[in-house]
């Protein structure tokens, strides 16, 4: 079986959500079976196992897809796995397993942050104005992977595909547990889309004069300026504009908790990563976070109330020890090895099915 994984979503520098997912699941899958990856920049290889076989292809885009499919046909691919939902289908001689991590584009109204270019906003609107493009992509595949039961139910509710859907959870990256010291630093890891509600977090800090918020991800100047308007004490907010896994771990060592006020998620990987190394989490009270966090492993708050967030932070010192123990236990439910084993079973089933039909 010639298995190919489309890794063109991988970052060329620091990981973002889909990049981390793609690199992690591909690396774990490569430990189980031979595979070839597709990349569009050799710098992406630093996130993958050493000496992994690869094919060079154009960057992802609907205008390049036919060329990529012809290349994979010529390569003789049997199965192509895409860690994202934008691998469209043309005259493919291979089977396709695609992924959809969430339905945020259909659940939220234009969830843009201030740094999203106008042409990308137009493309987003065009893609989500009707469900037909997403349905065509998912129904063009043989199997769909998603990352939570909540995401699966949302895909079904939106009637986005008639193909089989398998839930395969995310997992934390491997890092040693930290020695927790508490402190006054709260960490946010994620984008600045509207549904992430970073503005709500920041607006609560006048109620938390002894705390500060560190935002890890890249933030455009317009975003930073907009968030700083909520503060009279500017030292309460810091932007790192990206960080390596090692730098994030070092930050967590001197932090009190990871926080998020998001209203829509497919999974919430930073939460599990924080729990896995022993950092408490303070998170919005939404169904997906109850799926990925067992009872007692997180402090929940109403994501529409800055006051509720501030109150949850005040509860942290008295509950940190219990949260750390419960968080470790919760995070142990997830591993990339187990997720890769589940994915490999799906790959084998699709491969057997294709040969049975032929």
Give a quick summary of the entry:
The chain has 358 residues and is α/β, with parallel strands linked by helices.
What is the helix tally?
13
CATH topological fold name of the largest domain: Rossmann fold
Just give the CATH class of the largest domain: Alpha Beta
**What structural class is derived from the secondary structure elements?**
alpha/beta
Question: How many E-type strands?
Answer: 13
Shape: globular
N-end to C-end Cα span: 15 Å
- Topology as a string of helices (H) and strands (E): EHEEHEEHHHEHEEHEHEHEHEHEHH
Level-2 CATH architecture of the largest domain: 3-Layer(aba) Sandwich
Q: Please give the largest β-sheet.
A: 7 strands, parallel
Q: Unreliable runs, pLDDT <50, ≥5 residues?
A: none
* Rg from alpha-carbon coordinates: 21 Å
């Amino acid at each position: 079986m010639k298995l190919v994984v489309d890794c063109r979503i991988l970052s060329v520098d620091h990981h973002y959500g889909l990049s981390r997912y793609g690199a992690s699941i591909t690396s774990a899958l490569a430990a189980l079976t031979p595979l070839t990856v597709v990349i569009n920049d050799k710098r992406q290889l630093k996130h993958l196992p050493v000496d992994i076989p690869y094919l060079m292809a154009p960057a992802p885009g609907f205008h390049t897809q036919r060329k990529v499919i012809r290349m994979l046909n010529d390569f003789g691919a049997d199965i192509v796995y895409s860690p994202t939902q934008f691998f469209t289908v043309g005259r493919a001689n291979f089977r396709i397993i695609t992924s959809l991590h969430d339905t945020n584009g259909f659940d939220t109204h234009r969830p843009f942050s201030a740094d999203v270019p106008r042409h990308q906003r137009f493309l987003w609107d065009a893609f989500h104005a009707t469900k037909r493009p997403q349905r065509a992509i998912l129904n063009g595949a043989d199997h769909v992977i998603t990352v939570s039961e909540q995401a699966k139910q949302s895909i079904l509710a939106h009637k986005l595909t008639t193909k089989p859907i398998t839930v395969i959870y995310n997992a934390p990256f491997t890092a040693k547990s930290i020695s927790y010291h508490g402190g006054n630093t709260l960490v946010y890891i994620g984008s600045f889309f509207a549904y992430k509600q970073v503005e709500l977090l920041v607006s609560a800090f006048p109620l938390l004069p002894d705390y500060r918020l560190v935002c890890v991800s890249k933030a455009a100047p317009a975003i930073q300026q907009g968030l700083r308007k909520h503060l009279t004490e500017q030292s309460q907010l810091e932007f790192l504009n990206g960080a390596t896994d090692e730098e994030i771990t070092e930050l967590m060592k001197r932090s009190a908790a990871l926080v998020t006020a998001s209203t829509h998620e497919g999974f919430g990987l930073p939460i599990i990563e924080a729990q896995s190394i022993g950092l408490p989490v303070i998170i919005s009270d939404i169904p997906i976070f109850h799926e990925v966090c067992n009872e007692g492993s997180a402090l929940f708050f109403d994501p529409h109330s800055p006051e509720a967030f501030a109150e949850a932070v005040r509860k942290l010192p008295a509950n940190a020890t219990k949260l750390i123990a419960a968080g470790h236990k919760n995070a142990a439910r997830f591993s990339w090895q187990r997720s890769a084993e589940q994915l490999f079973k799906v790959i084998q089933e699709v491969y057997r099915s294709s040969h049975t039909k032929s």
